[in-house]
């Protein structure tokens, strides 16, 4: 959090670190995908993990996620949103594989 | 040229149906009547200034209520037409096509254009007043929501006279609804009408959630929040997380229809079941969106008319929250028969049954609240008392349906029809009516006549059981939903005939409500105290109807049931007015922009319906321009001077 | 002064950081920011449904081109880098705003818009090249889902660009004050959110196609 509003002395160090991390995570994902070092399953597991790390980078380095006026209701809201997102995607995949042999 | 126009008109307007011609005449006469009256009384300016441009939550609530009652009338007429057709075997009152259209519009209207706006009416009227706030968090957005609902509903209802009604059921399953099987514009009307009003619903969900979280009066902690507000929180949480699924389902089907894509087609790899999956990701939570606020209303009513604080406040809150989360994990029970794996069906069966537990907790809490209370059988309480056994039965048959293997027997039979009408009428409609009677004096400053209300109550209730109990048996006897006729040797005649009688009794009940409203406008008891029921929450601490700014001084809350607590301490807002100086009040300005923006949405939707893309693009452009105008507007607030506040309060006899 | 949002909650003291921030100073600042976070949660669900649809019919190619045939690493990598960079410059805009530097704030917003335009340009040319190869939306369920998912993200970005231009105009006109601060902060949230969605398109759509 950069709370101070007056001085211009500081370099936006946090933002630069965030950008560096997001680029790094992207290149690691691409390198893993291109190298064919691992099978499809493990690669996907790892790059999904990297994508989750990217969310954390965006939220904490760029989006001022912890700032709030009063209780941090937006964090609760987003948490429920993420639970429901997982429910929709995982649930749908689980349900809709019923006729995967057809296609 | 003339031939050209004639051929266009014969496709554009619905023709060849005497009932629709009669309706055309009625609609035209009605519109002419309205225009004439407004012009004669010179009320156009008044209409624009006081209603169309208003951002006042109380007025928006009243507009929602009027729309919802009109839609209840239309949906109810649809129901009566269906029951007339089914009263006897082999009838030709309606043909198959016409019957399909009627059950489609009945379902869609009752859920999306009756129950939802009725709820939003009560949200708007009660929530800010219960919180001790002066408006909702986003008054402008609130107006946008209303007008999007209004024009969405208008677009949907327009299909009755222009283009032809949708006819694939309120669930609109592909592949039947794909272009190959359903050419007509009716289905497009369905997709766009719901889409437009759905955007408004989502905005309402965000609006009320933020209002309750951020705009409570000082001292009103979350655990001092009235239960109706808690139920609105639960409902809004579901709205904001479930409506996107509907948006996507409808959008993808529309893309299939207008852009020839293959999401849900039978060819080129499409998967129709995916629509059904997305639809119910929204569709099941939707029933909790409408029923949870009804639970909130029952809680307020039971507590007020038993003269006791609610029993088990905390468990009420916890069960609301549990329902709002678990409701998200039950959607597949709408298509157990699809043939998903045993694991899927078991999971969703168990999750569905689990919902019964928090609901049961609530029922016991209502009963214990009444226990040893001084129960006053006023109209809201009557409807609440009728709700409990009715909903318990509907819940029990719901558990039967949740048993996946047994569901293969009941699926899409009249057993299901009876079940969901019992929960949606017994649970939601009873609650909406209880809420309407309860808050009516606060909205309009007079109470509705009790005697006529009792006639309505008994006709509607007896009619309900006469109508729907036989349908459980019809389901067991093999009658499936959406059949437009049957032969006499099925043995279904007597139950169907009884059911139709019940439907007409309910219709008479509705007429009594209409008469009751009209009678009470003239002769209803005026509410001069602002607290006709000896209420417990803050909306009863101010005058009826509430002044524009709601609270001259924002009340300080020290207890749950804030107004009850104030009364117990001999405190009142009148005394606060006497003690403290009036200050200017900061309020949002009225704006015509929401109305104009919704008109553009309507134009765009109409263009998409008939694949007139220039018109659709024009509409969207207009929407965009409205948004930019709004973004650049820096003059959207004003102050009511302190003297004006004082004058208003004095006129209300509150200084 | 009495306002719509009359009451400041007692818990507020524990998060005193926001009380100095310009975007929280008007009564509607905290309301709009919380409301926008919740809107982002709904948008997240919207994309969740599109991702779910994509994953279910990803392999339904109907004999047409598959994801492996279509996607090329340089194209989507450049798109990713452009969008990540624009997310970074967007965050710098908020940083400069909080240091009350109007010129740099405007500068970074303009850079963000340009990067966004670059992203959209490459995406459109990618779509056009697919269409030229006959991989149109009408070809198969997979392609319908691909174009809809990626296109929905693209139209979000396009809307964001128009919105940001409108905000640049307002900042130029009225300077850094509570209303504009709120607007810049909120468009920042929107922009970073679209970056997050893109990361998942990158992973679930493009990388999956390349790896499989």
From TrEMBL, chain A:
InterPro entries found in the cross-reference section: Cyt_c_oxidase_su4_prok, Cytochrome_c_oxidase_bac_sub4
Membrane topology note: Multi-pass membrane protein
Transmembrane residue ranges: 16-37, 43-63, 75-96
Zinc among keywords: no
One of the record's GO cellular component terms: plasma membrane
Sorted UniProt keywords: Cell membrane, Membrane, Transmembrane, Transmembrane helix
Molecular functions per Gene Ontology: cytochrome bo3 ubiquinol oxidase activity; proton transmembrane transporter activity
Entry superkingdom: Bacteria
Any Pfam family: COX4_pro
Localization annotation: Cell membrane
A single BP term in Gene Ontology: electron transport coupled proton transport
Cell membrane keyword on record: yes
Similarity comment: family membership: Belongs to the cytochrome c oxidase bacterial subunit 4 family.
Stated name of the protein: Quinol oxidase subunit 4
UniProt source species: Pullulanibacillus camelliae
Lineage: Bacteria, Bacillati, Bacillota, Bacilli, Bacillales
UniProtKB/TrEMBL annotation, chain B:
Keyword terms, alphabetized: Cell membrane, Copper, Electron transport, Heme, Hydrogen ion transport, Ion transport, Iron, Membrane, Metal-binding, Oxidoreductase, Respiratory chain, Translocase, Transmembrane, Transmembrane helix, Transport
Domain Cytochrome oxidase subunit I profile: 40-558
GO molecular function, one term: copper ion binding
Bilayer topology term: Multi-pass membrane protein
Reactions mediated catalytically: 4 Fe(II)-[cytochrome c] + O2 + 8 H(+)(in) = 4 Fe(III)-[cytochrome c] + 2 H2O + 4 H(+)(out); 2 a quinol + O2 = 2 a quinone + 2 H2O
One Gene Ontology biological process: oxidative phosphorylation
Entries under SUPFAM superfamilies matching the protein: Cytochrome c oxidase subunit I-like (SSF81442)
GO CC aspect terms: plasma membrane; respiratory chain complex
Location within or outside the cell: Cell membrane
Keyword Iron among UniProt keywords: yes
Family the UniProt entry places it in: Belongs to the heme-copper respiratory oxidase family.
Protein name: Quinol oxidase subunit 1
Species of provenance: Pullulanibacillus camelliae
From TrEMBL, chain C:
Catalytic reaction list: 2 a quinol + O2 = 2 a quinone + 2 H2O
Leader peptide range in chain numbering: none
Keywords, sorted A to Z: Cell membrane, Electron transport, Membrane, Oxidoreductase, Transmembrane, Transmembrane helix, Transport
Transmembrane segments: 34-57, 73-93, 105-122, 142-163, 184-207
Domain of life: Bacteria
A GO CC term assigned to this protein in UniProt: plasma membrane
Chief location: membrane
Any single GO BP term: aerobic electron transport chain
Localization terms from the record: Cell membrane
Subunit description: Heterooctamer of two A chains, two B chains, two C chains and two D chains.
Stated role: Cytochrome bo(3) ubiquinol terminal oxidase is the component of the aerobic respiratory chain of E.coli that predominates when cells are grown at high aeration. Has proton pump activity across the membrane in addition to electron transfer, pumping 2 protons/electron. Catalyzes quinol oxidation with the concomitant reduction of oxygen to water.
Similarity-based family: Belongs to the cytochrome c oxidase subunit 3 family.
Name listed for the protein in its UniProt record: Quinol oxidase subunit 3
